[in-house]
From TrEMBL:
Belongs to the peptidase A1 family. One of its GO terms (biological process) is proteolysis. Residues 1-17 form the signal peptide. InterPro entries: Aspartic_peptidase_A1, PEPTIDASE_A1, Peptidase_aspartic_dom_sf, TAXi_C, TAXi_N. Transmembrane segments: none annotated. Residues 108-441 form the Peptidase A1 domain. It comes from the Eukaryota. Keywords: Aspartyl protease, Disulfide bond, Glycoprotein, Hydrolase, Protease, Signal. SUPFAM superfamilies: Acid proteases. The active site is at D126, D328. It comes from Dioscorea zingiberensis. This is Peptidase A1 domain-containing protein. GO terms for molecular function: aspartic-type endopeptidase activity.
Amino acid sequence: MPMAVQLVLALAAAAAACLVSPALTAADTVHCSNPSQDHGSDLSVMHAYGPCSPLRSTGHQISWEDTILDLASRDESRFLYLASLAANKKTTIPIGSGQQIAASASTYIVRANFGTPPQPLLVAMDTSNDAAWIPCSQCVGCPSTTAFMPSKSTTYKPVPCGAPQCSQVPNPSCSPAPDSTCGFNLTYGGSSLDALLSQDTLSLAADSVPGYTFGCLRQVTGSSVPPQGLIGLGRGPLSLLSQTRSLYASTFSYCLPSFRSVNFSGSLRLGPVGQPKRIKTTPLLASPRRSSLYYVEMTGIRVGRTPVPIPPGALAFNPATGAGTIFDSGTMFTRLVAPVYTALRDTFRRRVKGTVSSLGGFDTCYEGAVSLPTVTLEFTGMNVTLPVDNVMIHSASRNVSCLAMAAAPENVNAVLNVIASMQQQNHRVLFDVPGSRLGVAREPCTIA
């Protein structure tokens, strides 16, 4: 049985084309040091766009308030993307669909190596996407100067048109004979991409996966793509889990550090070895409308000890419509369908004594010191009590705290409740696909 693999994770606080970081106050000043070296199957972790990140844009810092508004607005686009997946009647999983999340999402990144000899990239990790795609040399419009160079790899090869993988990409096309290689193009939001379906060795820590299938980007129009690509941890046929089933047994877990952390801390652990033995779990559910999403049955919510009066049926899982609750690493703030969020918000406001204000998409904010309750998410067989740090966004400079959840956008037929990364931070979240279970256990992994 393979050794569990620890992978580097870090929060991408904004989309690749519009990277923003909270402006630092004097109290927030940090001194960057060289990242710790990887050892064996362990890789170090850092905040993707924190003060010490190699992906951070140093010339554009904005206020805390504007950063939160930016993240919230991008989350809305992310939610629209997830809602479209849930409503999609197709059962095939399109490669490259993760590009759409970059227009919206704060994701975590992993250090991966492609090719022989290995070429390092920091790729976005997404539990709601399947296929991998990366910028390749001579890509027109790719947002990063770091790109994979196929000509430098002795194990690289394009995928021929007759290969089964070619039928799983959107808008496939074949190059003229004698090459007859498989390409595809994808349009979404304000961006579109063109890629060559490819195979090469993927290296994660000490493990190598020969013949890994991914999209090699040739042209990108627009600015909403992760700078160094994406790798998917969904359940579809082209995901990392599916392509490494014999190595990792379709099992992984992660602990996400705070998005404001500047140190190496959180981890992604691939494979059944080293996973927590004592952890409360809830059954994983599946919808034929979007088989890659990690659905669970949420049964209720409590604010402190007070049950939230959620309308009957508002949390129900419906595989036919795609309605229900998912865990997602790419959404920053939890989104709930309107009846559920309204009930939670009203209960929270009754529990907290203070004047309520708003900040962009956050409608429950407080100034000054207030007594804040925990929030418990209830699932079949498992309750997850979130401490205040997972419930509220804080501004030290303005002394403002906001409930870090929101309602689904009103302009869509929203059916999804999305448990997002803000609420998952500093927890070990286990995805056991063969055992059809998802587990959550408190595990601090943020170093201040």
